[in-house]
Amino acid sequence: MSDPVTVDKQLPVLLEPLPKNRGVYVTNQFVLQVKTWGTLSGVTFRVNWRVERAGILPKIDTHLLTADSAKTIGGSPKYLPLGNGYLTIVSVSVSTSATGLPQRGQTFIEVNLQDKQSAESLGLKLISGYLVWGRDLEWTPDNPFDEDPSSGPGYVHSVHTASQALAASGVVVWPSGGTGVDGARWKIKHILVKLVTSATVGNRTILLYATDGANNPSSGAEGSNVLIEWVNSATFGTGRTVAASTTERYMVTTFAVPATEQGANLGITLLTAMSQPIDMFANANFGLFPVVWIQDTAHIDSAADAVVIDLVLEEWIVPQ
User: Fold this and answer.
1) For the structural domain made of 5-146, what CATH number should be given?
2) Of 207, 192, 190, which is closest to residue 278 (Cα–Cα)?
3) Residue 227 pLDDT more than 70?
4) CA nearest 25: which of 81, 86, 115, 112?
5) Is 43:133 a contact under the CB 8 Å cutoff?
6) The three-state (H, E, C) secondary structure of 264-308, written as one string
7) Contact, 180 vs 290, CB < 8 A?
8) CATH 2.60.120 fits domain 155-317
9) Domain-by-domain residue ranges, the chain?
């Protein structure tokens, strides 16, 4: 390759023309549309791209952007202007985070090529994938990066609820630890319920279920899509009276628990094994709002009985 020479406006020029198939030709009418979805706030990521013109040295542009706030699904896109030339490479990576570096399943990014005169994307998706520390997502004309957001390994974490009154309407736990989450997938691998009864003796009929249906637990309605259910008269044993001032633990799990470690050793009153995790989706368009719910349907002393719920789940983002 010849050495660069200098012409008008002091622009370095290459004597060889740019190969025609090297990139996608763009003008200043086009922008990079960047959208993020995630459960971490304050994630800053770096977007790099290169536009080349025949006879001119490549220019690399870098922008730092901050991901949308926690649990924002389908937040406002960001637009990055492009110049005239051939777009030959686009890459994104995590730069910093005030809330911890994202793991796979937490922060999803999508980069599209868009005409800035139109609200619609050009249909050219450049990058679609999870931002993970130490991994760059890169697009080139021959190698777009596009991964399925709801497959592969997700973000495994736990959700813990502090002790609270069982209440007549029961206790509801959202897998995400919050309400109003749309566009997510959870696989619940483990449920541990700790029930502390009051001094009132009675046969508490414990109902524990997970549902992705449109439900209203406060009305006592179970919803339309009960995924899995345990009730006193079935799994928990018919006619068993929960003694006064007693602590019981109910475990529903996909994890292997050796028989020698069950019962008194772990303090587990009843253990149920799941062959597969409970697969739950949140989608407002279909009325899917996953919850795990526990209730004493006999209402022996719901105001004084206390319950603690712990979940272990794997989480993905499903962009809407």
Assistant:
1) 2.60.60
2) 190
3) no
4) 86
5) no
6) HHCCCCEEEECCCCEEEEEEHHHCECCEEEEEECCCCCCCCCEEE
7) no
8) yes
9) 5-146, 155-317
Amino acid sitting at position 72: T
Calculate Rg over the CA atoms of the chain.
27
Angle at 300 between CA 208 and CA 194, to 5 degrees: 45
Note the pLDDT tens digit of each residue in 126-171: 999 998 888 899 999 888 899 988 889 999 988 888 999 988 777 8
Averaged confidence pLDDT in the chain: 75
Number of helical (H) and strand (E) elements in the chain, helices listed first: 0, 23
CA–CA distance, 174 with 177 (Å, rounded to integer): 5
pLDDT digits (tens, 9 = 90+) for 167-198: 877 787 877 655 556 678 888 899 888 889 99
pLDDT, greater one: 163 or 38: 163
CB 89 within 8 A of CB 98: no
